Amino acid sequence: MSSPVEFLELLAREAAAVEFEGPLVAARSAGLPAERLAELEQAKTVALRVRALLERRRRRESELSGLYDTVSDLAGLRDLDEVLRAIVHRARHLLGADVAYMTLDDAERGDTYMRVTDGSVSARFQRLRLPMGAGLGGLVAQSGAPYVTANYPEDERFHHTREIDAGVGEEGLVAILGVPLRLGSTSIGVLYAANRSARPFAREEVALLLSLAAHAAVAIDTARLLAETRSALEELSSANTTIRAHSSSVERAAAAHDRMTALVLRGGGVEDVAAAVTDVLGGALLALDAEGRRLAQVGEIDEPDRAEIVEAVAASRTEGRSVRRGRLWYAAVVAGAENLGVLVLRPEGEPADADQRILERAALVTALLLLFRRTVAEAEGRVRGELLDDLIARPLRDTDALRSRARRLGVDLDAPHVLVAVGDDAIAATGSARQRVLSWATTYASTRGGLAAARDGRVALMLPGQDAGGSARAVARDLSRITGRPVTAGASGPSTGPASLAAAFREADRCLTALGALGRAGQGASSAELGFVGLLLGAVDDGGDADVSRFLTATIGPVIEYDARRGTALVRTLEAYFGVGGSLARAAEQLHVHVNTVTQRLERVGQLLGADWQRPDRALEVQLALRLHRLRTPAG
């Protein structure tokens, strides 16, 4: 028999609402009286109310559990995307919606964009952007108030756009609930729940979605604060690293400054500067002078291309600081407008600004050292030059005093020396080029224990040794390389003792003149290597110049006078004729004239000198006279 207890049993097993009609149907079938049926109807109504209350309690418990889980997620927030996906998923689950999604405001573009979806199947819908005020979501984002519609496509309250309606239609959404994500009074986005069929959303569901939206806003703000904190910590760490690096650079710069100052005070060299720089900065360093010659090198570094060096030095001088070319750093070594050289650094790593200042300070110190070295060398060169000038002057003064001065300079005047005279072709230039030649000669001589000086348009060198010819050739070769033009050097000696040096220099000077007269410009030789010309130079030195003049007049005087009076080339024809071994054809070829012309000129010579001028003994005298004439008149 049906009784109210049956409804309690239905409640106990959480039966569906339709099952609560069963006891009434059974009672009516059993023909129970009306008052009994009324009692059962009342019991059913009360049981359904209790069932609805229990259902609401269960739903509330589920909602609270979801909110609790959300708060737990926020407390252990590690990844914002994961938290937002969890919130959207719970919104969909707790509201029993087909789709849940979230949009966030884009301040730069002035609209909202899809951030997270759950249950969506349309790619177009997932890429939607909603202008402020358009559609349900745009209106929520603009107003900051919740909006709900049971049938969005048919709801005229909203501003429909083609793009939004196409995305919503492709997803198949009908009923939509949207609530704002708020931080204080500011709306930052919208949280949605939606169904693909018409459905009203209860007030409790709106409240639940608002709670989830509040948690989502907290999550977003927390993530923003964490990001800002992390960024601030990174900036602080970076600043701390920069400060430490700067402090280290300053300490290195101070240490380098002290070290290079000490180098200057104790008279260190460029090698010491290079070692100091590489000790502080690491890597390798190459120091070059203005001519590209290596002054010092520390570590392995390939010498750069000359064109690159020139360009980098020009850039460094223009900018007033070091410049980078590939892996190398260049710092010009300058003194005012004068270029003294360059420092080339190959660092181990990327140098800081303070490290570049160290390189630039090293270039400045190098310039000071080079200027100091030059000043000392010039002072010493003047002293050495004055001594040599006194030694080769006439008359010779106090020899003991000269020996004493020489000893102070490390020169032994009683040891064998050779005298070298450098032609004016080496010092024809003016200004710095001439000074460079004299500076080179001074350095060349002093490094070998000798002396150098400028005298009567020549450069004189007194070098220890006995090989006059070898010394002359070495000087001509090296100085030609320095000047970039052929340089002639004549030498004599060896000579021993102060009294013999003046005569040795005059002999070296005449040897230099003879080299030019003999067409040997750009070469070096000693008077002894000139053969009979050397003997004649000695004869001239012994006072036989008048005899030489008489010999010339007696031997080829008429020919010389004829050329001078008529402007002919008989002397040159004779030189060419003897020079090719008496061949008329080859002489004509050398003179660029016809053979008949050579024949006619030689017939004229026979008329002037006599028919026997080609007899062997006369021919030898004529050839000797021609050489002497060439020696006495090198421009003839």
UniProtKB/TrEMBL annotation:
InterPro entries named among the record's database cross-references: CdaR-like_regulators, CdaR_GGDEF, GAF, GAF-like_dom_sf, PucR_C-HTH_dom, PucR_C-HTH_sf
Please report the stretch or stretches of sequence annotated as the GAF domain. Answer: 79-230
What family name appears in the similarity comment?
Belongs to the CdaR family.
Name of the protein described by the UniProt record: Cyclic diguanylate phosphodiesterase
Origin organism is Micromonospora sediminimaris
